[in-house]
Amino acid sequence: MLLFFDIDGTLWDYRNYIPDSTKKAIKLAQEKGHKCFINTGRSRAFVYNKDLLGIGFDGIVSACGCMIEYDGKVLYNKLMEQEECIRTMESVRRHGFRTILEGPEYLYMDRHEFEGDMYGEKVMKEMGDKLLSITDNWGNWTINKLSCECGSPTRDECFEELSDLYDYMLHNEHIVEMVPKGYNKGRGILEVCELLDEDISDTMAFGDSINDKEMLETAAVSVAMGNATDRVKELSDYVTTPLLEDGIWNAMKKYELI
Q1: Do residue 144 and residue 156 come from a single domain?
Q2: What is the span of the domain harbouring residue 195?
Q3: Residue 30 to residue 89: CA distance in whole angstroms
Q4: What is the residue-level pLDDT of the chain in tens, covering all 258 positions?
Q5: Bridge-partner residues for 134, per DSSP?
């Protein structure tokens, strides 16, 4: 079986803590012949934590299905065209969005825009030299998607201007992920199945938030973490215990994967 795991709120908590039971469950599942994949909205540049990667996943689906790796090799990578990127940046800046561009090797942001912002400070601290300036690299970005702080009165006008390019995932009134149209975590699962010649009926997904929606709808079996949002719980086949209460371990035991 192919098993797909969201990162934030599923594999680890806001402190980047991964329960030992989660690590053990994934290892035991692999020993039984199951293949385990990260499936994240983060671009690949932002998936680098040694403890996370040290679990030894068989593959990584990143940037909401835009990039796929298996057995250490890149099998698929959907990059945005530079003209699209420039048009996007001109639009989001005109409407006052603060932006992080997300790519396979680098993230791009203008640090002064995020000083004092909790998430922005986290990105700056963790990314080091893998974080580049948007302005200083104008037009030379290599990205799959972007995220924005969009608390602007003209937010919806901006969304309409770029509606031919993106699907929008609003995490709340002020935070949006902008993903190339047709791409999401569910498409990532379908692409993996096609690339590895596996059947969709042999898939399971684990998630907790709204950007896991398509992943949970696509997989044959969907598991919501006990700490998931109510909407995610409603659309899942099974609700396990919370992340910090051995949620992944308990779900795998229930489905006899370990």
Answers
A1: yes
A2: 2-77+183-254
A3: 42
A4: 999 999 999 999 989 999 999 999 999 999 999 999 999 999 999 999 999 999 999 999 999 999 999 999 999 999 999 999 999 999 999 999 999 999 999 999 999 999 999 889 989 999 999 999 999 999 999 999 999 999 999 999 999 999 999 999 998 889 999 999 999 999 999 999 999 999 999 999 999 998 899 999 999 999 999 999 999 999 999 999 999 999 999 999 999 999
A5: none
Q: Residue 88: left if φ>0, alpha if ψ -120 to 50, beta else—which one?
A: alpha
Q: What is the CATH number of the domain that holds 93?
A: 3.30.1240.10
DSSP state letters, 122-157? HHHHHHGGGEE-TGGGTT----SEEEEE---TTHHH
One domain, residues 198 and 170? no
Query: How many structural domains are present in the chain?
Result: 2
